[in-house]
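Exercise 3.2. Students should predict the tertiary structure of the chain below and write it as structure tokens, then compare their answer with the key that follows.

Predict this chain's 3D structure.
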Amino acid sequence: MIKRKVDPVHWLKYVILIFWSFLIVFPPYVIVVNAFKRTDENTSPFALPHSFTYLENFHVAFERADLGRGFLNTVIIIALSLVGNVLLGTMVAYVLGKFRFRFRSFIMGAFLFATVIPTITTQVVVFSIMKTFGLFNTMFAPVLLFVGADVIQIYIYLQFIRNIPDELDESAMMDGASLFRIYRSIIFPLLAPATVTLVILKTINIYNELYIPVLYMPKSELVTVSTSIFRFASNNQAQWSYISATILLIMIPTVVLYLFLQRYIFSGITSGSVKG
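Answer key:
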């Protein structure tokens, strides 16, 4: 009888995959089981609730956390930020990707350098600027930061725009089209796959952002979905059942968005091409 040789590398990859899957699944599991627990259930945070039909936590979470206003403020910030990201990203990428001019390499290097600077190291200066311009405790502060302080949209659009044939631009110029007409009628429509990718990534990123709303919008009327969780936490205690229910309510839109649009995320990031 021939014994099969045990390949340790083969088993190691399965162990790593199982361990990594556990790290990913375990936090949502803790959130789900605690979201259905009554406040008087003194059980382990990892234990199952007495019943999954207890929904009072969700009602309290929506009312006390002011999730209605939080969703509205978050949608407004996302909408304004996406408009700025799409317009700024497409225009800058069009100039950098299709034109050759002095200091072009320097500008590209400056954008690249900005992406490697830790955001936290510039917050003192950025906060002072926002406060000087009267943007503190307004929704324009996070909008400007999401648009101007994040240049990922430029690189996403550059990845696509370099695959658009130059002959399209040149033929349009020969027909008398202005640069803005070329951008509006040719370049912008052809960047639709990149725009879809950017919208999905930025929406999820802004929706989950916690640090910027906490720092720049501490006013209670400017609550977002991420800062609404603080309504159930203080220096002395935290109401974990309500916090878990709030987090679960917040997770639902992003999970639905990802499940329906995940193919656009992967194809947009990896393809970087436009069908002619």
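Discussion points: The chain is about 70% helix and 0% strand. Confidence is low (pLDDT under 50) at residues 272-276.
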